[in-house]
Amino acid sequence: MGSEIKSLRDGRVDISESFAREENNEIFLINSYFSKYANSSYMNHDESRPRKLLLHKREIQKIAGKLKKESLTLIPTKLYFNKDGIAKLEIALSKGKKLHDKREVKKKKSWEREKKFLK
C-alpha cells in the first residue's frame, strides 16, 4: 500500500523479529512492523498485517520444497529500494539453533556480564 511505502522511505520499519511462511503456494512476510504514516488519513494501513511477497512461481516452489524437506526457516535479511525506486526484500533460508548452541551463547553472555562487574 502507498502509506507502507511512505513509512519505508521514512525508515520507520522493523523486520528484526519477522519471518516468512509459505501458505497456499504464496510466500507471506509475518510479524513485520510498518508504522503508520503520519500524513495519511483514513487510508492508513494495518501496522503488523501479513504481507504477500511477490515471487515467481518457480521460486516459490523451490523455496517451499526446501522449507518442507530440510525444515528450514525464511528470514528477511535486508529491506531496500533498487535503482528504479522499487522496494525489495532480501530473504535467506536458515536453520535454527540446537539446544546445545543456545546454552553456549547463554554461557558467553553471562561470562561477559560477570567480567564487567569484576572490573
Write the layout of secondary structure elements.
Layout: H1 2-10, E1 13-14, E2 19-23, E3 26-30, E4 33-34, E5 51-53, H2 57-70, E6 73-81, E7 87-94, H3 99-118
Antiparallel strand pairs: 1-4, 2-3, 3-5, 6-7
What does it look like?
- With 119 residues, the chain is of the alpha+beta class.
- Helix content is 36%, strand content 29%.
- It contains 3 helices and 7 strands; from the N terminus they run αβββββαββα.
- The protein has a 3-stranded antiparallel beta sheet with strand order 2-3-5, with helices on one face. The protein has a two-stranded antiparallel sheet with strand order 1-4. Strands 6-7 form a two-stranded antiparallel sheet.
- The longest helix is centred in the C-terminal third of the chain and has 20 residues.
- It starts with a helix and ends with a helix.
- The mean pLDDT is 81.
